[in-house]
UniProtKB/TrEMBL annotation:
It is found in: Nucleus. It catalyses: L-threonyl-[protein] + ATP = O-phospho-L-threonyl-[protein] + ADP + H(+); L-seryl-[protein] + ATP = O-phospho-L-seryl-[protein] + ADP + H(+). It comes from Anguilla anguilla. Residues 8-337 form the Protein kinase domain. One of its GO terms (biological process) is negative regulation of G2/MI transition of meiotic cell cycle. This is non-specific serine/threonine protein kinase. The keyword Iron does not apply. GO terms for cellular component: cytoplasm; nucleoplasm. Gene3D superfamilies: Phosphorylase Kinase, domain 1, Transferase(Phosphotransferase) domain 1.
Length: 346
């Protein structure tokens, strides 16, 4: 499809990451709200990141309520725009793939290439800002844990390793119904987003039908964000169990409201760590140095979590990835914990 008439109208900028700008936009024909992430493909790193996001999101055949849905990906070169599909034979797409594989620009660098990701619009900001601007709520925490574990089980079933799970990359959809209920209605919907560092593992020769195979797909590029990185990621030899560790860090921090201030942005972020003197050391780094390190969970009040919850967080944060539950088991255990907690509440 080649079109000259713009299909979307940009309304306002809503986010800016390392590689792209995100806008709230409207579909011209229907007025529907969407989010549009624009990535300029002017360096091999940007192209690789954009393609990773595209491959992961476009490889998912079905939708999940807690995973951002890619409606369309548009490749633009100057005034020419075309909808991009997986394995497309278009020369524009091939030039991008070549750029990412070779690590050098494989097209005329004077031409401006952009990738536009059209996805569902999340009107409630990110999970970090959402939680830190509200009083702690056991109900919200329980709902968020269930939504996140369900999203992760879905991604791993689809052979996708996210590799950058953190509250900043988890977005909130409040929707008109939730807003009308002024916060007392159903909990908002979380959407796992930002697949720029993700990897699809089904091409690795492992069986895509075997949900456990994602845990046998070994990766070696150390990537992610320090405070959420598993010990084996620091070493550069890891599997999907690295996502389980990141979720463990997020859940522990959410339940106990543990935060740190990001040195670069000065933003307060939810994330657990260990204190060595006055220094905050990321859990993964500390466990890499000393795999027998005993984590103090809960870190604050004994009553902040049940024994089952404490054990689950401990297991998700095991130094040895094989001792961590896989995503399916994690979800099952959280559902059991949630059922018991709901019993306590009523
Ligand atoms: N679908 C969306 N709806 C609303 N805001 C979004 C959406 N996607 C991203 N954003 C905003 O843009 C920011 C950057 O997006 P992200 O995908 O994380 O890009 P980056 O790879 O640059 O970090 C997010 O933290 C969020 O604030
Ligand atoms: Mg991000």
């Amino acid at each position: 499809m080649v079109s000259s008439q713009p299909k979307y109208e940009l309304i306002q900028e809503v986010g800016r990451g390392t590689y792209g700008v995100v806008y709230e936009a409207a579909v011209r024909r229907t007025g529907a709200r969407v989010a549009v992430k624009k990535i300029r493909c002017h360096s091999p790193e940007n192209v690789e990141l954009a393609l990773r996001e595209f491959w992961a999101l476009s490889s998912i055949q079905s939708q999940h309520p807690n995973v951002i849905h890619l409606e369309e990906c548009v490749l633009q070169r100057d005034t020419l725009a075309q909808s991009m599909s997986h394995g497309s034979t278009s020369s524009l797409y091939r030039e991008l793939v070549e750029t990412s594989l070779k690590g050098e620009i494989a097209f005329n660098p004077r031409l401006a290439y952009y990738l536009w990701f059209v996805m569902d619009f999340c009107d409630g900001g990110d999970m970090n800002a959402y939680l830190l601007s509200r009083k702690p709520s056991r109900r919200t925490n329980t709902s968020f844990m269930l939504q996140l574990s369900s999203a992760l089980a879905f991604l791993h079933r689809n052979q996708i390793i996210h590799r950058d799970l953190k509250p900043d990359n988890i977005l909130i959809s409040q929707g008109p119904a939730a807003a009308a209920a002024a916060g007392r209605g159903p909990e908002p919907t979380l959407k796992v987003a930002d697949f720029g560092l993700s990897r699809v593992c089904s091409a690795s020769g492992l069986s895509p039908e075997d949900p456990a195979s994602v845990n046998k797909c070994f990766l070696s590029t150390a990537c992610g964000t320090d405070f959420y990185m598993a010990p084996e990621v620091w070493e550069g030899h890891y599997t999907a169990k690295a996502d389980i560790f990141a979720l463990g860090v997020i859940i522990w921090a959410m339940v106990e409201r543990i935060t740190f201030v990001d040195a670069e942005t000065q933003k307060e972020l939810l994330g657990s760590y260990v204190l060595q003197g006055s220094e905050m050391v990321p859990l993964g780094e500390a466990l890499l140095e000393n795999p027998r390190l005993e984590l103090l969970i809960p870190a604050r009040r004994k009553k902040s979590m049940s024994a089952a919850m404490r054990q689950l967080i401990r297991d998700a944060l095991s130094a040895n990835p094989q001792e961590r539950p896989d995503a399916v088991e994690l979800e099952l255990r959280l559902v059991r914990i949630a059922c018991r907690e709901l019993d306590w509440d009523t």
